[in-house]
Design brief:
alpha+beta; three-stranded antiparallel sheet; 10 strands; 8 helices; single chain; Immunoglobulin-like
């Protein structure tokens, strides 16, 4: 999701300014409709929707004009693939309360990847998390939320803060159990807040401690949900396009 898609129109498809183009993606269970913006008379731009599974879907380019029926201009197939970021997000979501798995992730910290790699990892994994279909009962602290806050344990929040993953930390804070995780100590007695301070992650510490702290600037390049329910509508501010997703 949230990748830029460019559509090249053939000579016969280049039409008047009052024609509006849409892309319709039809998957096995959900359908997406995205508006487009014209770059020039022969090119359109839009954003790929975040899909609910990895599959090949049908995509149709539709043209709409006031007072006329909607026309299907062209059809093509489009493949949603499972990449490493998707695998990582799925692994972390599944292991939310699994102490063995969360302790295993700590080896990443010892290798200390370069800042540019951390930034890339943060963006990709956080984006994949946003598009995962998390169960309604999913919680940052795992399935056993009844555990006392006094029991030392690793949490997903410790993992995100230890690596300095600003966007993933922000995402987790918005989820059930996200705020509760901030006061949990691990076996070394560290909370996510104390870890951020100890490592000198000022922006991260600010995010965790300031009331009403704003989301990271980088999210402004992504789609924002403006309606959710039986269907969802997202707005991508950068391209000013909308994505409508509903059950097929």
């Amino acid at each position: 999701g949230d990748s830029v898609i460019t559509v090249q129109l053939t000579e016969e498809d280049k039409v008047e300014d009052d024609v509006v183009f849409y892309l319709v993606f039809t998957g096995s269970t959900v359908q997406h409709c995205t508006s487009t913006r014209k770059i020039n008379p022969g090119s359109l731009e839009t954003i790929s929707p975040g899909h609910d599974c990895c599959e090949t879907v049908k995509v149709a380019l539709c043209a709409s004009r006031e007072g006329h029926p909607v026309l299907v201009v062209a059809e093509e197939s489009f493949q949603f693939v499972q990449d490493e970021a998707y695998d990582a997000a799925q692994f972390l979501a599944t292991c939310a309360g699994n102490q063995q798995a969360l302790n295993f992730t700590r080896f990443l910290d010892r290798s200390r990847p370069p800042a540019a790699d951390v930034d890339f990892l943060d963006e990709k994994v956080a984006l994949a998390f946003r598009h995962l279909k998390l169960p309604a009962e999913w919680n940052v602290l795992g399935a056993d939320q009844a555990l006392s806050e006094n029991i030392p344990r690793e949490t997903l929040m410790h993992f995100a803060v230890r690596l300095g993953l600003l966007r993933l930390t922000w995402f987790l804070l918005q989820q059930p159990g996200g705020r509760g995780a901030l006061s949990i100590h691990n076996n070394e007695g560290a909370t996510p807040v104390s870890l951020a301070l100890e490592r000198g992650y000022q922006k991260l510490h600010q995010l965790l401690t300031e009331e009403g702290a704003r989301e990271p600037d980088s999210w402004s390049t992504l789609s924002h949900t403006v309606h959710s329910g039986d269907y969802s509508v997202k707005h991508h501010r950068g391209l000013d396009v909308y994505l409508l997703t509903a059950e097929a």
